[in-house]
Amino acid sequence: MRRQALMGLVVVAALVGCAAEQKAGGGASGAAGSDGVTATTIKVGGVLTKTSASGYSTKDAEIGARARFERANAEGGVNGRTIEFVGAEDDNQDAAKGDAAAKKLVQKDQVFAVVPVHAPNFGGAVFLEGAKVPWFGWATGPQWCGTTTGFGYNGCLAPKPGAGSQTWWGNQLADLAGGAQGKTVYVQTTDSSGSKYGGTTISQSFQAAGFKLVGVNSGLPAAAPPPDWLPYVNKIMRSDGGAAPDVVVSIIAGTKFNTGLYSALKKAGYKGILTDATSYDAAILKDPATAQALEGVVAAPMFEPFESTAPEVARLRADVEKVAPGTTLTQHLAIGYWSADIFLKVLEKTGKDLTRESFLRTANSGFTYENPGFGRIEYPKDHTEPNGCGALVKLVGGAFQVAENMKCFDNVPLK
Amino acid sequence: MSELLGYVLSGLVTGAVFAVMASGLTLSYAATGVFNFAHGAVGFLTALVYYELTAAFGWPTWAAAVAAVAVFAPGLGYALHRAMFRGLAQAGETAQIVGTIGLTIALPALGLWVIELSGGLLAAADATALPRGLGPYPPVTVEIGGVGLDSAQIMTFCLAALAAAGLWAFLRHTVYGLRMRASVDRRRLATLRGIDADASSALAWMLGSTLAGLAGVLAVPTLGLDATAFTVMLFVSATAAVFGRLTSIPVTFAAGLGLGVVQNLVAGYADFAENVTGLRTAVPVLLLFAGLVLLNRSRERVAGSASEDAPPPDHLAARPAWRRRAPWVAATVALLAWTFLADGYYAGIAAQGLVLALIFCSFVVVTGIGGMVNLAQASFAAMAALTCGWAFSSGLPLVAAILAGVLAATAAGVLVALPALRLGGRVLTLATLALALLADQVLFQIDAFSNGTIGWPLPALGFGFADTTDPRVRVVLLLALIGVIGLLVRNLERSASGRAILAVRSAPAAATTSGISAPRTKILLFALASMIAGLGGVLFATFKGSITATDLPAFAGFVWLAVVVLQGVRRIGGAVIAGIVAAAVPEILSSLDISAHVGAILFGTGGVILAKHPDGVLAQLADLRHRARAALARRHTPGGERPGGEQPPGERAPRPRPTVVRSPGEAPASVRSPGEAPASVRSPSDAPTSVRSPGKVPASVRSPGDAPAPKATGHVEAPVFALESVVAGYGEVTVLRGVDLVVWPGEVVALLGANGAGKSTACAVAAGDLPVTAGRVRLGGVDVTAWPAHRRARQGVLLAPEGRGVFPGLTVEENLRTWLTDPAPVYDRLPQLAARRTVAAGALSGGEQQLLTIAPALVRPPRVLVADEPSLGLAPLVVEQIFALFAELRDRGVALLLVEEKAAETLRVADRVAFMRLGRITWTGPRAEVDPDRLTAAYLGVS
User: Which parts of the chain span the membrane according to its record (chain A) (predicted)?
Assistant: First the structure.
């Protein structure tokens, strides 16, 4: 049930019209007057899935964003204004609560923009678009795409058919595997429309890179991990004309799902490459069995890995250490950090005369920004397609290593 | 072939976990009548404790498992029994369902909150928590019959098998198991045999929780600490339990195993289902639905037994209409004023609350009026909203799209009502649950219908001068709509259809024979309720500006139900308050910076309140105020109608008598206007289940003059058993109007009288089965009035009830063991029973059953044996044998009270005779003084 919303994390989707066609409906009763900007401050708050019934949590994004804002403030703010970060609301992975949280931030707390938004089932999109309030975060869901106010830090990850769809994952993996020629790939998703759509885009990414697709299976129950993996593993092990495929891509969020699948595959004698988008998480390595199940897995983060030697990553580390010493760096933290980073960049470009209108005008008229931390972003283009950048890390001997550094590839139109 | 074998073998392992969980579900339901929706949550909480013990305290897995499963889980079961289940067992079905659903929300939240509060002392239970299983870690793989199974799987299967064997042995071969089964079989009779049915229930809950905990600990390595996953597992287990018809543990267990295999086979072979998203996920739900419809046709309640659902008294009934409505009008005006004064944000929250209130009104129709619990209400709302979005996006004008949405929900409601025609009570609830899950997992997954994960955009509703982007417009619109629905509901209640609904609800069989079409009224209710829910759903979507398939998940419907029932589901006012509460509480909590878990706990613990006040907060408040006012009124009229009269004024809270003795779930007295002297009325206790603790008996029981001395008839010692000025009855009907009766040891007293004289009531009072309104019951000089039935039985009062006093589902041997530790002497004395010792008592002839009823008394003679119509329906030869046994008992010093309608045989053994008429003893005297005139007078009422 809720898990299917989670699937949005990985790739996500909408088949038909994005929110662009939506008429203002969400109650754009935005309190006129104050929009969170004073002569010296800019008020900002976020919406995260801090707690949820499934245990999924993006709460670290708050630390990331705070770390980035603190540095900006320490450097004297942006155009003379400091960022007043009021923290992040929790949407419990409930669309209605996300909507309420967005309204609270805008109407009651009167923030200028909602940063970071990192909630797979975010329900405040229509309201924010109607009220013309900018929001920044991880655009995993279709509610982001085609808006003028929703800024995914790496673009819209749920493009419509015809719009650009990423190829970096397939290309990076081909690079890692020493070429894709003659290699086969099998894509495993769950039985929900979001995850199935993810299967389509990822299959396309690997095919664009030259892999041969031997199977897309969406038989996994969506609500909870199957208690028994045997039937699914049997299918995978025979997909390449009776043999196992070279690469298995898992489009499933949730450590329990992935460790279950990988353990079962290894038990069945699978020796090929395993790759997914969510396993890059140092916290889960504390558990030896999980570490063992994930050993050798190639994870695909959409930012420069923490193990990288890039100076931007070193600065991220230092910024975080300043606001929350001893914090383990996670995917969610990086997303919060880079979302805040892009927001600050737009603020800087907008200049001293800051209103929501001027901010959005700046952002949506040919704004480009490159940073080795997340690649490159271009608005308004990336309102409708992903930025096409990503990295690979590999778990070797219980520790992640950078397998491929952040790199951008050309998108191809989504079929 | 080996592939198939592999699927079957490893499917059995999965199935074993379902089986353990389902067995617990069946056990607790069979033993207590409460279907525990929180069974999965108990499993989750136990797994959480297990995880914390291993992760935060570093215990070895086996020790943590023992502590969690064998200590924590039963402890939790006991605590829940004390706090909730005991009360719920006597509350109506609605309260039971809602109470346990509340727990489903509250228990996981409680666990997670404690972890949150511990501030890092306990290990975080989020997605990064990876609980490990029992046994070697990481698991070792073993090859069995060509199939690779790992040590964790083998361990799981062995533990499940062990649990099954243990459960079987416990139920079949221990005295506790026997008592529990006896309580399940005939609860009332069990208490008459000295079995503390309440203790049996506690035991059943502890066992059930242990099984849930075991399943939880076994499943947690695969499921992770995901409360939702555990709830899903509960639904699968419920399927197994339904296949066991919620009564048979072995069948449930087998069905659980089978489900694991079926899931594997579907995953392995049903590739054709791939094109329908969600279909394979929904296999257990489909089976659940099939099982419900095919196997569980409700055995309809008999006429009159629905009193458990009687409405609470309307204390304001006598007030003028304006006075009754004044608070609501004032509240509405206040809300409106606040809406227009507060800023847009708060007005938005009020509007959100009222949208929910509108949806909640549908619960008033289907549950409050119809008495049916529908868990699919959120699905109706979602269905309407999605249809509306789809229709609008296809080019229909908004108003037409809204109509289409409402019609779609109405149609869905009628479809749901169709199975409801055949199902009743919990089975219906489970069926609506299955439908809700199906809608979520299959219907809403169809992209053409729900437009994938993005859903449909919807414009604001315009009225020319204003549109609904302004929350104030929304508030006014919603208040108007709720007002219209309020009128509709009131008219419905007062119309012929309303009376038909009430008739069907309280006595389906009687209603049918009176020519009322139960199916028609049920369909009407469902259609109306889903129409309201649909309208609410559509407005929810328009106000939000868009609708997606996940905006109104099935689970939201459960929470809603809990909130509404907690406020009071019988009136629109309850729904409105519930809507406001549902919207405002999260807001208040977050502004106070309180964890969201606390909100879940608060909503959930409403169940505890329901266990005590099944009619919700509104009714409870009304009741409290009524009591206070009554108390005040009494204080102002000194020497007035004070029950008992001798309590000094100012002693703590003198309450009107009827409420003093009302226990939860009992039907309250009917409409009475305040100020009117409370009639000496008491509700029918749900006799067999009512367990009163000593001391709870009304203070008003008194007898200033103390026991009226019985006319001495040559007896030197005191009577062993005495009823003194006993007044008792059912509800408003007083049956015994001051009965005095004594029995001496070694004496047979025959209590004779015509049908309806109150003889059986006298028996029930004697055995403690029915509480008295006034008067005393003494056993050997001790006042036992306050003792519950099982305690009196243990002290030697044995009642052989009217009909047959046997447990039909237990064997002859087991029946005897409920009263005797060793039944061997009975077999020596009554060889015909020895020959049938392994036969279920229900299969015996009537005479054998009556022998079986009396036989235990021969071996372990009670002090008092009360036999209610022992000769009823028996052949003359058998009657003779039975009376011979009575004579034998008398000679052994037992005091016998024989209650008979037919005088002839009884008079032959009786020493003394009492005639009863219209609730009074009209004559008592030695048998010798009984002559035909007296008999005629006793039976024909000629005096």
Answer: none
Taking a C-beta distance cutoff of 8 angstroms, is the pair B451, B390 a contact? yes
Asked if A349 and A240 sit in the same domain, the reply is no
Q: How far apart are CA B778 and CA B359, in angstroms?
A: 56
Based on the fold, state whether residues A6 and A132 are members of the same structural domain.
Answer: yes
In terms of Cα–Cα distance, which of B631, B924, B940, B893 is closest to B750?
B924
State how many domains chain A has: 2
List of chain A residues whose C-beta atoms are within 8 Å of the C-beta of residue B271:
219
CA dihedral B315, B321, B324, B329 (to 10 degrees): 170
Residue B57 φ then ψ, to 5°: -110, -5
Give me the residue from A8, A21, A228 closest to B264, CB to CB: A228
Q: Which of residues 127-166 of B touch A (CB under 8 A)?
A: 127-130, 132, 137-139, 141, 148, 150
For B391, the token pair is 């229709």
Query: What pLDDT digit, counting tens, does each position of A119-135 carry?
Result: 988 889 988 998 999 99
Nearest residue to B916 via CA among B941, B897, B896, B895:
B941
Nearest-by-Cβ selection for A193 from B263, B264, B453: B453
List all residues of chain B from 24 to 83 with a beta carbon under 8 Å from chain A: none
CA distance B206 to B194: 21
Distance separating alpha carbons of residues B253 and B241, to the nearest angstrom:
8
* Ranges in chain B, pLDDT < 70: 1, 127-128, 137-138, 144-148, 296-318, 419-425, 506-509, 518, 607, 637-717, 938, 940-943
3-state secondary structure of A190: strand
Burial pattern A260-297, b for ≥16 Cβ within 10 A else e, equals: bbbbbbbbbebebbbbbbbbbbebbbebebbbbbbbbb
Q: Strand B774-779's sheet: what is its strand order?
A: B733-743, B721-730, B774-779, B782-783
Q: How far apart are CA B671 and CA B683, in angstroms?
A: 13
Selection from B857, B769, B353 nearest residue B567 by Cα: B353
Alpha-carbon torsion angle B484, B486, B489, B490, nearest 10:
-110
Instruction: Indicate whether A291 and A357 sit together in one domain.
Output: no
CATH number of the CATH domain containing A196: 3.40.50.2300
Q: Tell me the shortest Cα–Cα distance from A151 to chain B, in angstroms.
A: 17
Domain co-membership, A195 together with A259: yes
Claim to verify: residue A182 and residue A270 sit in the same structural domain: yes
**A397 and A376 in one domain?**
no
Q: What is the pLDDT of residues A316-327, one digit of tens each?
A: 999 999 999 989
User: Based on the domain organization, do A238 and A90 belong to the same domain?
Assistant: no
**CA-wise closest residue to B683 among B716, B737, B732:** B732
* CA gap B543, B546 in Å, rounded: 8
Which domains are delineated in chain B?
Answer: 2-134+151-269 (1.10.3470), 313-594 (1.10.3470), 721-940 (3.40.50.300)
